[in-house]
Design brief:
It contains 15 helices and 14 strands. The chain is of the alpha/beta class and 407 residues long. It folds into two domains: 133 residues, Aspartate Aminotransferase, domain 1; 237 residues, Aspartate Aminotransferase, domain 2 (3-Layer(aba) Sandwich), CATH 3.40.640.10. Strands 4-10-9-8-7-5-6 form a seven-stranded mixed sheet, with helices on both faces. Strand 1 and strand 2 form a beta hairpin. Helix 5 packs parallel to helix 6. It is globular, with a radius of gyration of 22 Å. The mean pLDDT is 96.
């Protein structure tokens, strides 16, 4: 037996990705962090570039909580108390006090009765969505939904999948009207904040549309939202699209690994739903949970978010988002209006996108370029992500370097 034949096929695929300009290539390895100084924020050291320090504009840690002393202290103390790992899956002996405390606090934060932790937000969607889908279920998905939703639908094997044009409620309405009486149940699933663009779903309008058609489906219509980029980064108190739109998802999924700065994912819902998921979701039953220390750190981060300090951080984040968008428009770059700290620059060309990424890297700025097929054709972009770790000087420096680009 040998891998020679399959490796030839894999090499051909890698070459194809390279030619398309979408191969990710070698990962950049962070070797250290340089503290903030002289009006500039923290910088990151990379392996192979020891003489340089980089401004990171592609981090999901919107509130900088991964470096907050109280979050670090909570994790360190929990490691001392409980050890480095859980040692088992939850239903055997892997449930620790910090897991239960965090679940209780997450449910309270979101105005729900119950919550459930997973090892990652991606695993949460993969573990939750299939449990709501049967052979009589129609799944309706936004055209720009995240990979975790797309793959969870594939795993679920629904009776039918429909995709509606991005954020188009009229298109959703038409799908629900056309399929009335043909399926017992419908799952309408969407991102909260769309990670490539920073715009958001109108869950209030989605719910209203679903309510209008629910009588046409024997087992009803369920709204499922993954607001991983919204929680802790959007809304006056950081409660994401539910706070901004006034709508409430039947099932809300989010992450501990972005604004909260730690690791893991979670779902909040009714007690019956959470109890059902604990008994049926393989990504929960057969996978170790986040460590007790990560749960303790996440609880500390959530408490900071839900405090006066959190409100100040969110206000700062919003101000930076407004400032950067205004600066991009002044320079003639195409972006989207909004208040979320994901700020896209639409380049709409693969080669130019790669050139802009290289230009900024040459000036010690880390950004993420998104090319087809990660994004649709003609929507190639640079995704800038703002953090409260940044300073006014950082954003001015970024805009200065963007102004110098001649691509």
């Amino acid at each position: 037996m040998s891998l020679n034949k399959i490796e030839q096929l894999f090499n051909t695929k890698l070459i194809s990705l390279e030619e398309q300009g979408v191969r990710k290539g070698n990962e950049k390895i962070v070797t250290g962090i340089k503290p903030a100084e002289s009006g500039f924020g923290i910088r990151y050291k990379l392996e192979g570039y020891s003489d340089r320090a980089f401004l990171r504009m592609n981090s999901n840690s919107y509130l900088g909580l991964s470096l907050h002393p109280l979050v670090i202290k909570a994790e360190a103390e929990a490691v001392e108390k409980y050890g480095a790992g859980p040692g088992a899956v939850r239903f055997i002996s892997g449930t620790y006090q910090p897991h239960k405390e965090l679940e209780k606090r997450l449910a309270e934060f979101h105005g729900r009765e119950s919550a459930m932790l997973f090892s990652a937000a991606y695993a949460t969607m993969m573990g939750v969505l299939p449990q709501f889908i049967s052979e009589d279920t129609l799944v309706v998905s936004d055209a720009l939904n995240h990979s975790c939703i797309i793959n969870a639908i594939r795993l679920s094997l629904p009776a039918k999948k429909e995709v509606y044009a991005h954020a188009n409620i009229d298109a959703l309405d038409k799908i629900l009207a056309t399929n009335r009486g043909l399926f017992k149940r419908v799952c309408v699933v969407t991102d909260g904040i769309f990670s490539m663009r920073g715009d958001h779903a109108q869950i209030d309008k989605i719910n209203a549309c679903c309510k209008q058609h629910e009588a046409g489906y024997e087992e009803g219509i369920i709204s499922i939202v993954d607001d991983s980029h919204g929680i802790g980064a959007f809304g006056q108190s950081g409660r994401g699209i539910e706070e901004v739109t006034g709508g409430k998802a039947d099932i809300l999924i989010a992450t501990l690994g972005k604004s909260l700065g730690v690791n893991g994912g979670y779902v909040v819902a009714s007690p019956v739903v959470i109890n059902y998921l604990r008994e049926t979701s393989p990504f929960y039953i057969y996978s170790n949970p986040v460590t007790p220390a990560e749960a303790a750190a996440s609880l500390a981060a959530l408490n900071i978010l839900d405090s006066h300090e959190g409100l100040r951080l969110l206000e700062k984040l919003h101000g930076f988002s407004v400032f950067l968008r205004a600066g991009l428009e002044r320079l003639g770059y195409e972006t989207l209006p909004g208040e979320h700290p994901i700020v896209p620059i639409f380049v709409r060309d693969t080669n130019k996108t790669s050139a802009l990424v290289a230009h900024l890297f040459a000036h010690n700025i880390l950004v993420t370029g998104l090319n087809y097929p990660v994004v649709p054709k003609d929507e190639q972009e640079i995704r800038l992500q703002i953090s409260t770790d940044h300073t006014d000087q950082d954003l001015k420096f970024l805009l200065d370097k963007l102004a110098e680009f001649k691509g």
